[in-house]
């Protein structure tokens, strides 16, 4: 067994899990609280990456750029909620699908207009570009940063949701919408904040990944589907569910891609194993989703809702 | 024995909606279930019609265990229901609604080719049921275009079109005016003795005009059951429920 | 007034469209305009896919965001046998239908247990699963897809290499599918499907096992979309996973809604306008998606009922005059 490879794959899995969680946290809240399906959530991921890349180019400081970019994406989220999403809460899901699909086209084209077709890289400062050597295992420093940043957000979000008044409303909203209205809360403002918060988290994920992949048009359109799977597996409206299933899916997807061919060659001739493994590893997370749904149609952690 | 309920329990987060419910209803009997709001009447009906599965206990219908049967099975063994909150197919006409019910119990519906309009007998039967409930004149109107009272009548016509041996009626007079509910009482009186009926209703005059037997449900438990007149006179019932209504 | 009354009036519009499509090939060949011939062929082929989506979405109320998967499966059913030198059209078509029905039954069995947002996302996820599966199949070209060097053979009966033959075949298949759907929605089965869309709990209490009806409907729709994919693969001489990307499924939904959901012929008009608009706008500017997205949003927010609804409104105004 190649321990170096295993550890680096585990870290990759954790990193993917963190990114998925940042995307899925907003999605699951927006589904759970507003019953709103937002296909264009991945656009915030892209916008975050581009805005951050531009700021880094101008200011040279990664940290300052990230802080400003998160605020900007939060602002974009506010605008989208106020002028588009809010008009759609009362509509059926079909309308929401279509309008947010239209939003993707618009955001992708706007990105094309503003930043060009080529995409943008974010150069890493020297202190992040190094490798960390832990007992003979070499780990890229930036990977550690992504994971720590993700964990920091998880902890922050956890405190926000469990300890603050906003969090109380969010939890109540995800399990019982009428109750929140009955509490006399300004529901419009709650929705606005939740939506923008979700957008900012997605944007932050985009900023984290951009130094590795680069900011490119449509970069959010594929990972957002995996984020949907995370939300379904975790249970719509559940932050805890989103976290558990994001990490689970991050690991399964990454490890499947690197070890499935070895595993298959235990049963199959190498030639077939090499053909089948990539196809099968592309399916693993969907098979996971299907199996979870077969036993728990509401996902792993359905938000407690009062029946009757 | 038409319906036999044994030791039925159902709780929602610690609240007992059904607490050790035992009930026998004879063939062709009309049985009323009364009780204050939140006493568990709707939960009981939901368990009888297969929408909610009880935590424990059994329900037998004509000797068949239906405790865990899915709700779509019920119509085919002769158990039909009407809903407390009107549930009809709004954009369809009244006759189409009733045809939908009649179609369900006349062979399967995996028939893809023959237009439904050629199935004359379905339409004729549907029209007959609409006439029985007094909706013949508006049979061509869409359900969303008729009055609330007429939709309640439509509910009953749909249930009847299933040709049931047991009819579960969940507050058939809910939200109706005096004249309209009088019409329903008349209709149900005409059905008495032809099938078993379980009636959940708030209107006490209507209940005791129709029911042969009655049960009183309080906090999920049956506190009294027996012939309607006796139940009405039972002091415990008077105190627990009827008293504060008539006070 | 019965709601079906004004719909009859629109037959004039659809009749004109039909005659136009029927007469177009000879005129276009005479005028030497292969480009427009191709465009119309694509309209016909994608109309089949859009109509099949209309069956589950418009009539059955099942919002599938994974319909392009069936189209892609249909096209791969031409490409993969051809890759091994098997050109029989009967076989291609058979595989297309069988594969789509199987995929519909397996994925439908899972996603139809859920509803609402769950259903949308699960159809989307399964389609994406198929997409990534084909992306990872190196043998069949992975990302780049497969070229189809020769169109399906129908034992000398039909020569699909002739654009006119392919055109009229597509038109015939479209007419056949629409005819079938028309029978279907007025049959017992169709009434049940429509009933489920409007009030599923009530249909269950009336004794319908709604899950089985929806699953059957989903499989029929999938098979039709597969046939459309079979034609599309033949038409383009090419298939790549991109053809089943989820944005393609989004476009199919747009075509249906643009035409008018739950109206038999409307998706044909929706597809035609969609593809025409795509051609015109993309010739006009590379940033045409911006206009397209705006148009999409406007249709949803202001144009309820799609093109069909618009025509209906206009006709009603003319009548009341």
Key features?
heterotrimer, A: 308 residues, mainly alpha, two-stranded antiparallel ribbon, C: 321 residues, ABC transporter involved in vitamin B12 uptake, BtuC, 14 helices, 2% strand, globular
Explain what the structure shows:
The complex is a heterotrimer of chains A (308), B (247) and C (321). In chain A, helix 3 crosses helix 9 (187-213). Chain A has 12 helices and 2 strands, in the order H-H-H-H-H-E-E-H-H-H-H-H-H-H. In chain A, a hairpin with a 2-residue loop joins strand 1 and strand 2 (137-140). Chain A has a two-stranded antiparallel ribbon with strand order 1-2. Chain A has helices spanning 3-34, 41-59, 62-88, 93-115, 126-129, 141-163, 165-175, 177-182, 187-213, 220-234, 239-264, 270-295; strands at residues 131-134, 137-140. The N and C termini of chain A lie far apart (55 Å). With 247 residues, chain B is of the alpha/beta class. In chain B, the strands form 2 sheets. Chain B has a 6-stranded mixed β-sheet, with helices on both faces. Chain B is globular, with a radius of gyration of 18 Å. Chain C is mostly helical and 321 residues long. Chain C has a single domain (11-320), classed as ABC transporter involved in vitamin B12 uptake, BtuC. Chain C has helices at 4-9, 11-30, 34-59, 68-83, 89-111, 117-135, 163-186, 188-198, 200-205, 210-236, 246-259, 266-284, 288-302, 306-320; strands at 146-147, 153-154, 158-159, 238-239. The chains are: A mainly alpha (308), B alpha/beta (247), C mainly alpha (321). Chains in contact: A-B, A-C, B-C. Chain A binds chain B through residues 306-308, and chain B through 12-13, 15, 17, 43.
């Amino acid at each position: 067994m190649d321990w170096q490879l295993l550890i680096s794959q585990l870290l990759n899995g954790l990193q993917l899990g963190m990114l998925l969680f940042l995307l899925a946290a907003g999605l699951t809240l927006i589904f759970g609280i507003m019953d709103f399906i937002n296909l264009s959530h991945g656009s915030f991921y892209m916008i975050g990456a581009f805005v951050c890349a531009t700021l880094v180019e101008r200011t040279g400081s990664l940290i300052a750029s990230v802080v400003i970019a998160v605020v900007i994406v939060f602002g974009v989220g506010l605008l989208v909620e106020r002028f588009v999403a809010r008009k759609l809460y009362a509509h059926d899901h079909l309308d929401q699908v279509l309008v947010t699909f239209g939003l993707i086209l618009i955001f992708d084209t706007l990105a094309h207009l503003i930043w060009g077709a080529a995409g943008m890289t974010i150069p890493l400062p020297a202190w992040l570009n190094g490798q960390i050597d832990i007992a003979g295992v070499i780990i890229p420093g930036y990977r550690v940063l992504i994971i720590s940043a993700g964990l920091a957000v998880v902890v922050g979000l956890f405190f926000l949701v469990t300890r603050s008044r906003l969090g109380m409303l969010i939890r109540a909203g995800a399990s019982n919408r009428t109750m929140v209205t009955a509490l006399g809360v300004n529901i419009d403002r709650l929705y606005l904040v939740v939506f923008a918060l979700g957008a900012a988290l997605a944007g932050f994920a985009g900023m984290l990944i951009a130094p590795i992949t680069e900011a490119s048009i449509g970069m959010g359109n594929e990972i957002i589907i995996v984020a949907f799977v995370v939300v379904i597996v975790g249970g719509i409206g559940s932050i805890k569910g989103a976290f558990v299933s994001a990490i689970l899916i991050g690991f399964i997807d990454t490890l499947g891609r690197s070890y499935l061919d070895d595993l298959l060659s235990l049963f199959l001739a190498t030639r077939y194993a090499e053909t089948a493994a990539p196809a099968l590893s592309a399916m693993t997370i969907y098979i996971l989703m299907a199996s979870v749904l077969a036993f728990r149609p509401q996902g792993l952690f359905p938000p407690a809702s009062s029946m009757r | 024995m038409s319906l036999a309920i044994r030791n039925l329990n159902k709780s929602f987060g610690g609240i007992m909606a059904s607490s050790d419910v035992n009930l026998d209803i004879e063939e062709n009997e009309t049985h009323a279930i009364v009780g204050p709001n939140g006493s568990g009447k709707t939960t009981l009906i939901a368990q009888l019609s297969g929408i909610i599965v009880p935590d424990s206990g059994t329900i037998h219908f004509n000797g068949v265990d239906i405790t865990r049967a899915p709700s779509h099975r019920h119509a085919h063994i002769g158990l039909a229901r009407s809903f407390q909150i009107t549930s009809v197919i709004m954009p369809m006409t009244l006759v189409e609604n009733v045809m939908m019910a009649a179609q369900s119990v006349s062979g399967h519906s995996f028939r893809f080719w023959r237009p439904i309009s050629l199935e004359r007998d379905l339409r004729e039967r549907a029209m007959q049921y609409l006439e029985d409930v007094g909706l013949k004149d508006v049979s061509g109107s869409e359900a969303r275009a008729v009055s609330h009272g007429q939709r309640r009548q439509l509910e009953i016509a749909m249930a009847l079109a299933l040709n049931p041996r047991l009819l579960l009626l969940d507050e058939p007079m809910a939200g109706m005016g005096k004249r309209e509910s009088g019409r329903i009482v008349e209709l149900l009186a005409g059905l008495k003795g032809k099938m078993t009926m379980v009636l959940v209703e708030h209107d006490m005059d209507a209940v005791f005009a129709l029911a042969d037997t009655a049960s009183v449900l309080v906090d999920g438990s049956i506190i009294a059951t027996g012939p309607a007149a006796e139940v009405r006179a039972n002091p415990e019932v008077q105190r627990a429920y009827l008293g504060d209504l008539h006070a | 007034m019965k709601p079906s009354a004004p719909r009859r009036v629109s037959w004039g519009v659809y009749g004109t469209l039909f005659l136009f499509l029927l007469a177009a090939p000879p005129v276009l060949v005479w005028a030497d305009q292969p480009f427009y011939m191709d465009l119309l062929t694509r309209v016909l082929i994608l109309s089949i896919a859009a109509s099949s989506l209309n069956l589950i979405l418009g009539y059955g109320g099942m919002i599938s965001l994974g319909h392009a998967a069936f189209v892609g499966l249909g096209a791969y059913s031409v490409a993969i046998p051809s890759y091994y030198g098997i050109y029989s059209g009967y076989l291609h078509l058979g595989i297309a239908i069988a594969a789509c029905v199987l995929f519909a039954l397996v994925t439908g069995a899972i996603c139809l247990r859920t509803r609402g947002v769950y259903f949308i996302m699960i159809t989307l996820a399964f389609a994406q699963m198929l997409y990534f599966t084909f992306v990872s199949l190196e043998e069949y070209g992975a990302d780049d897809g497969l070229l189809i060097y020769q169109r399906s053979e129908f034992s000398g009966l039909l020569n699909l290499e002739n654009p006119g033959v392919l055109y009229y075949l597509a038109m015939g298949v479209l007419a056949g599918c629409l005819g079938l759907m028309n029978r279907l929605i007025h049959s017992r089965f169709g009434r049940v499907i429509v009933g489920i869309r409007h009030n599923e709990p009530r249909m269950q209490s009336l004794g319908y096992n709604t899950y089985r009806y929806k699953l059957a409907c989903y499989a029929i729709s999938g098979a039709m979309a597969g046939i459309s994919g079979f034609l599309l693969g033949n038409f383009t001489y090419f298939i790549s996973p991109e053809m089943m990307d989820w944005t393609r499924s989004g476009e199919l939904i747009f075509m249906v809604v643009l035409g008018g959901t739950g109206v038999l012929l409307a998706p044909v008009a929706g597809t035609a306008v969609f593809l025409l608009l795509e051609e015109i706008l993309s010739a006009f500017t590379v940033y045409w998606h911006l206009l397209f997205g705006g148009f999409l949003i406007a249709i949803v927010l202001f144009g309820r009922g799609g093109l069909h609804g618009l025509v209906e409104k206009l006709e009603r105004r003319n009548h009341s005059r």
